[in-house]
Amino acid sequence: MRKMIGKFILFILFLSVISIPFSHTSANADKVYHVKINKEVEKGLYAYLKRSFREAEAAEAKAIILEIDTLGGFTDAAGEIGKLMDETEPEIIAYINYKAISAGAYIALHAEKIYMSPNGKIGAAQAVEGTTGNAVDVKAHSYWVAEMKSAAETHERNPMYAMAMAEPSIELDKYRAGAGKLLTLTASEAAEEEVGYSNGTVSSFDELLEVNELQDAEIVATKVSFAEGIARFITHPIVVPILLSIAGLGLVVELYSPGFGVPGTMAITSLFLFFFGHLVAGLAGYETLILFLVGVVLIALEFFIAGGIAGVLGAVAIVVSIILAGGNPMFMAYAVLIAIAVAVSGMVIIMKFFGRKLHLLNKMVLMDSTDTESGYVSNVNRTELLGKKAKTVTPLRPSGTIDMDGERIDVVSQGSYIDRDKHVIIVKVEGSRIVVREVEEKGEMNNG
């Protein structure tokens, strides 16, 4: 029995000894983070890349492979991503798996190494306006060309080719970039020694690992989280004005509706999604949310404090908070103006075509009117005098006094002057205004 126990202990010790090298190797295996950019370059992408890069730094990754397949996007977002890449500790390898166009080319140039698939392309990076697709103004264009130049120089690449990707006046006929055309390099052209924009052409991700002696590394593939996915969608420049317009229109419809219903819910949901997406994307801080809430409180106080100052300050606070939340004040200002225009249009339609009134103010503003239809009159309307006969006490020029059965009544003549002691007939009664005319014939007097 003792021999068996001894053999068992020796066997456990043997397994422990032979497992030490394997456990040591596993614990110290190099890590490579695989991060994909395969959609439009926008603000939401920055949040995803920032999280991925920070995870790689915390795990002491040996390298980050940025697999790029994008037609580009927004230059301001690309600029922030480029800065983020420059500040990241692990080596970043760009793998252009088909295309790195426009902002995608700018991001690739910030990588320490660039590899391309056989059909990969990089270039065509002129800055254009997001709404029209036309080239940006001279100042913005000059700035972007300088950004492309700096990106190339960061890792000692020839800046001429980067500038030719953004500036159509630079002629490189050898690469189909004549006058007025932008440079786009194929995988083979980028790998030429003269150009030096690609460290090599690889047919797969595995080959890329082998070329960089990372085939034994542990690959950590990052994915966009649910919150980051929502943030990328919400912060898209096309979605932002739509979301704000829904919020504005919903609030307007709710003002003209009794109680609280679907329009108000839609407005609150839209505003919640707006701030949630921009907070997750790192574009807005909690100070913008606090400023928004302060604006809401000020508007609420307006219903209890007369003067309008609280309401104006509240509206300004809300607009400023939305503009600051977007990261790009000019674009956000346009988005807010679009939302205001939609809300005002909705208000006009509701009032003009549907004749709706503000239900929200019913408890605060006296909505009842003292009109004739409601049974109110400004003074006594003596319609019973209509057709009665009387006698003038004073001349009517045209106003004067008549006597009717001992009652003196102020009247006006229907037309010309009527002398005193003349017989008249009351022909019109309009409130306190009583109109008479002279009785021309004795028969008319007797018939009364």
Automatic annotation (TrEMBL):
Q: Which domain of life is it from?
A: Bacteria
Which residue ranges does the record assign to the NfeD integral membrane domain?
Answer: 239-352
Protein's membrane topology? Multi-pass membrane protein
Q: Write the record's keywords in alphabetical order, separated by commas.
A: Membrane, Transmembrane, Transmembrane helix
Task: Show where the NfeD-like C-terminal domain sits.
Answer: 383-437
Q: Which residues form the NfeD1b N-terminal domain?
A: 31-220
Write down a Pfam family by its short name.
Answer: NfeD_membrane
What are the transmembrane regions?
233-253, 265-285, 292-325, 331-354
Recorded protein name is Uncharacterized protein
**Upper taxonomic lineage:** Bacteria, Bacillati, Bacillota, Bacilli, Bacillales
